[in-house]
Amino acid sequence: MFGKLDWSAIPFNQPIPLITSVILILGILGVLGLITVKKWWGYLWREWITSVDHKRIGVMYMLLGVVMLIRGFADAIMMRTQQAVAIHSAGYLEPEHYNQIFSAHGTIMILFGAMPLVIGLMNFVAPLQLGVRDVAFPTFNSVGFWLTASGALLVNISLFVGEFSRVGWLPYAPLSETTYSPGVGVDYYLWAVQISGVGTLITGINMVTTVLKMRCPGMTYLRMPVFCWTTLASSLLIVAVFPILTATLAMLTLDRYFGFHFFTNDAGGSPMMFMNLIWAWGHPEVYILVLPAFGVFSEIFSTFSGKPLFGYRSMVAATLFICVVSMMVWLHHFFTMGAGAAVNTFFGISSSVIAVGTGVKIYNWIFTMYGGRVRFETPMLWSMGFIFTFIIGGLTGVLLAVPPADFLTHNSMFLVAHFHNVIVGGVVFAVFAAVEYWFPKAFGFRLHAGWGKAAFWFAFIGFWVTFTPLYILGLQGMTRRLQHIDVEAWRPMLQLSVVGVAILIVGVICQVIQLVVSILQRDKLRDETGDPWDGRSLEWATPSPAPFFNFAVMPNVEGEEAYWGIKQRAIDTQQLAPEPDYRPVEMPLNSPVGIYTAFFSTVTGFALIWHIWWLAGLGLFAAFIGFVVFAWRDVHEFEVPVEELIRVERGRRAARDAFLERIRQGEGAPS
Amino acid sequence: MSDLPFPIAREAVLRRRADPDLAGHDPHGPKEAVPGTGHGDSGPASKRIIVGYGFWIFLLSDIIVFSCFFAAYAVLQGSTAGGPTIKDIVDLPRTAIETGALLLSSFTCGLSYAATNARNKLWTQVFLGITAILGLIFVGLELQEFIELAGRGATPQRSAFLTGFYALVGCHGLHVSVGGLWLATMMAQVQLKGFRHEIIHRLICFNLFWHALDIVWVGVFSVVYLMGAAA
Lengths: 671, 231
Ligand code: HEM
Ligand SMILES: [Cu+2]
Known about the structure:
Distance between the termini of chain A: 65 Å
Mean pLDDT of chain B: 87
Bound molecules: protoporphyrin IX containing FE, copper (II) ion
CATH superfamily of chain A: Cytochrome c oxidase-like, subunit I domain
Oligomer: heterodimer
Number of helices of chain B: 8
Radius of gyration of chain A: 25 Å
Strand content of chain A: under 5%
Largest interface: A-B, 49 and 44 residues
Shape of chain A: globular
CATH class of chain A: Mainly Alpha
Number of strands of chain A: 2
Low-confidence stretches of chain B: 1-9, 20-34
């Protein structure tokens, strides 16, 4: 009846997961109870859960990403402390548990933390910058988000029901085959990643179509902000490589569920094929994450230096170069696995060549600041911290890309330090910078600057105190993923690293305080003009928070840096552009299809993990019925009346007039 | 029902020519930027172009899934673990009939779209129906092949080669089956709702899907069956 599921799946005898999950469940029940008591369900349902507004979906993605980031951080704290105490002793985490923690940490951080954060940013920002009212497929966008959430939910269910994978964030075969991993852990991994992968693919298709087919009049390719270019490049990579992940995991699933022999040791299976396939996705995946981050920094450097981006065209070229070359380097993840000198040489060189594209970008950012009037606001601090951090991460990457050197450092703590260096310094710093930067556009007020700066300094210093020791440990020969340690000499560095984690925790606390303080002081921090940073691209042409239709009239772009041009014209002529004639706007209707799909994909996924076949069949059937029912809908759009457009637009113009008035009185632009 | 006669009516052809969505892509159409094509200075493209374009991109990603299974098949082909080889299991006559059915179904699918273009419900349904039947024949024959092979002990569990074979051919068969489900719902929608905009968009997508599966099958037929028989 319930497949492999019975009471032994609940970890009654393991205090740590048990207590965590009880607290989590109580917390969730508490939130649900609060929503019910306060009667917020209607609001949530109408304004968020069924919303197809790209900004709302973007915010929900970010929220999911932040929650998962915290979960992953908790895992990280456990791993660092375990290694610091488990020297010549067993520590406080048994091997089975420790293995689940590092597997969950990597999976959650990359696929359910960083990916939602980056996708959320692309969703929120790109349509605004392109001057359009929504993405190409708003309803699918909602489906994509909810599928990602469904995958994240499955990963977290594994905490309480059963176990998670123990084989690392990539389920290397044959370790992940049933012979060596008979439990449900790998199955949780497979179905969670598979479901969220579909969501990611939807986003990729959506954003490619949006950027290529939905730009406002006059927004030619070479007038697009760099963030839109990186969104395009990242989405193209998603479309090109996520299907590889889907296929690879499907093969592993066939091996595990039906005894196929893709990657098994026996009957002719090929574990090396798994390595090739998974890294053909895996390496581009890290560029899917970091390219939008490059876009964020490009926007921020030019805004806060008060200058157009240096070398815009070379930036575009470098982005596309990285996009293509990132698909030709995957073998550097297994130089040591016997490909031979010629093959290793090729991939060593191609990997180092990527650094050329990245170098071009770094120089462009530095030259953008050169000669500019640099304002050291919080987003700018994160960006400058990024330059420093990322250069080191890139250099250690190039070192790892030299095969003979990699034979010494492969799978060592040096490698661990490398990729945290690029992912934390690149992606996570970018996300924090972006949140500071675009928060007013989403909520209408800025985040508190003082707490933001404090958070940056703690995170920056904490990062280096945590990871520099890992570089040293790697060079001293410590391998990754050790549950306990037998070398006394490594003790000091491991303990220093824990100090770094403590500093990072202070940084996280600062972030939380920043949010709370900002909400309390929101009236003081209110962004009246809609252009709090003296911005240059079209999102700053809208009021803050941006109305659901983004633009009352679609902008008409006449040059690079679309909004800067409009703004300068207004300042020169001392008046706003004449009022256009407004026409009613069609906007997509809300749709529950996203949450519906996610519900049934969670049920089906859970059923498949536990081999509850009837439930899986039922879930698939319900999904099909839902598909038919939703396809039956006739009305997909509603009309926003002209009066509403005029109301919002007049408010915006009044704020802008006030801004011009202030300039006339010599107060200068807000900074 | 439309009063336009079948096959493709002259009116329908003219209407297509006049369709601004297609103008930018028509070699005989105007050359300057056309409003609403999404290129350059013209603003967002029409819904129809966006839907078709997005679906193309989806198809490309689907073809990448297939190429992974092709690659796996190529890698595992020699790993027969003492079991049957490809030469032992190909049955060219049956596969030839399968191929014929599928290629024909692509043709009838195209005809159904010609009828859609002429807004002719009866012929659209007739050709979609024939497409469905041909698809069913294809899937049926494939199933028969699988069952016969399994009866001879050539199951995917037998060797890595058979794993690759079943997965590649089966992945395509699964796509055709899901396409069949989609086709059935499309026929119901056409019948009950007529040629609404979004239904025509979906028919375009369905056509693209069906033709793409055909192209993939040409690859499967050549790489697995023809090269296998020649091996
Ligand atoms: C300058 C460009 C880069 C080069 C040349 C480079 C090179 C490498 C090499 C050779 C390895 C494999 C080392 C080993 O396993 O022995 C590696 C691992 C890794 N890199 Fe990079 N890298 C670069 C940039 C990045 C970026 C930008 C990211 C992420 C945003 C990243 C994320 C990772 C991750 C996650 C791993 C480890 C995966 C694992 O084994 O679990 N790298 N890198
Ligand atoms: Cu890599």
